[in-house]
């Protein structure tokens, strides 16, 4: 359309545009910025990582779960080995705590033997079959009914939302053009380039990477290659009080089923236990509800693994949707339309595989003829943010003396200071969830009961807005409404709401 706004005025066409700002999309975007390429990333939500990436189990799988002949199996172990360096460079919560996949019968022990074989075929180191006595010594709070387990020291836990935000932040430092609140409406081709028509304008790009998660089939259809369908699979997860910290020290898996790795016990990086997920195929991509049936199923399953867990310890619950395709494998590769590549069906172990998926995409684009010239000035690391709660008392005192904002506690449960929240806003947080995922403010036992108001006040002051304009996660997720007299005045003036400001990280 001749009168359509251009997202990047006075710019040459882009080399690559990534659609989708989840952990896979941001990993791809960051890898592309290592080279002398013009790259953009489009995300329909208010901030990156607000879809599936913020609602997954946060596990870096050990490398032995997926079959070696599948794309999942090939990329699971390759991705696993990349996370230590990524965490060191980007600066997100990451720790290799290991896992136990447990068996409670002879039939399940045979499944453990199969997992060991898969791991050995892929070269995963350190895998061992533990007997009952060794399990009891290592994890005394597990059920006496467990008779054997595969121990995988290569398994890790990660804060996936921190990783996603950090990857995008690093990509921005290296020249990425990021557009949030930016939904793709049409895709057309003209003179060898793709025209991506969005709610914020049009962008022109030689290559399009479809990493749109749950909506990857919609994007493919817009491009004229509707060759697959995304079927959402819902997983409910439940967070437990920190008083249970240490109940188990490793990620605990039951024996897997054909559609799921089962309901797990996960010691998160920050100390809370998380249990779940369920695995329910559903007809809609909008159903993020948790259910009584789901909670009953989750708690019943984990009590069979660790009897000390109780429903009374639950402090929060959420659901995420996995993007499955026929065959249950990843779908990664070129389409029938030149320059359009799909990165779809990325369910578990998609988080684990994300760095390896990014590497594979680079290879595919290189094979397609795109030139990859490394940048001499690529900056691999992000500045490390302050996490007040992890500092020693002496360091906390010194920091508060240097900047009084670090002496004012905003989130009591997680010991988050005003200084950390202001720093998160300066780094790009535009919503309450953006603050929460960068600082943990609102993630404790009271779930924001004490800190939400202060976080909103700080965000409103930074953005020059009134409190009713502040949202939880963008869109219409507002928490307060204007006073009646404000609404009446706005109506009298014919106002329809303030102009939407450009979103950053």
Write up what this structure looks like.
By secondary structure, the chain is α+β, with helices and mostly antiparallel strands. The protein has three domains: 1-94 and 157-230 and 325-384, 3-Layer(bba) Sandwich (FAD/NAD(P)-binding domain), CATH 3.50.50; 99-153 and 231-322, D-Amino Acid Oxidase, Chain A, domain 2 (2-Layer Sandwich); 388-491, Orthogonal Bundle (Arc Repressor Mutant, subunit A), CATH 1.10.10. The protein contains 14 helices and 22 strands. The chain has helices spanning 23-32, 71-80, 83-90, 106-122, 132-138, 160-173, 216-222, 292-305, 350-367, 393-402, 418-426, 432-439, 452-463, 484-492, and strands at 14-19, 39-42, 59-60, 94-95, 99-103, 128-131, 148-152, 156-158, 177-179, 184-190, 193-198, 201-210, 231-240, 251-253, 264-267, 273-276, 280-281, 314-324, 331-334, 340-344, 409-411, 416-417. Strands 1, 2, 9, 10, 11, 12, 19 and 20 form an eight-stranded mixed beta sheet that branches. Strands 13, 15, 16, 17 and 18 form a five-stranded antiparallel beta sheet that branches. Strands 6-7-5-14 form a four-stranded mixed beta sheet. Strand 19 (331-334) and strand 20 (340-344) form a beta hairpin. Helix 1 (23-32) packs parallel to helix 6 (160-173) and helix 11 (418-426) packs across helix 12. The chain starts with 13 loop residues before the first strand and ends in a 13-residue tail after the last helix. Mean pLDDT is 93; it is low at 495-505.
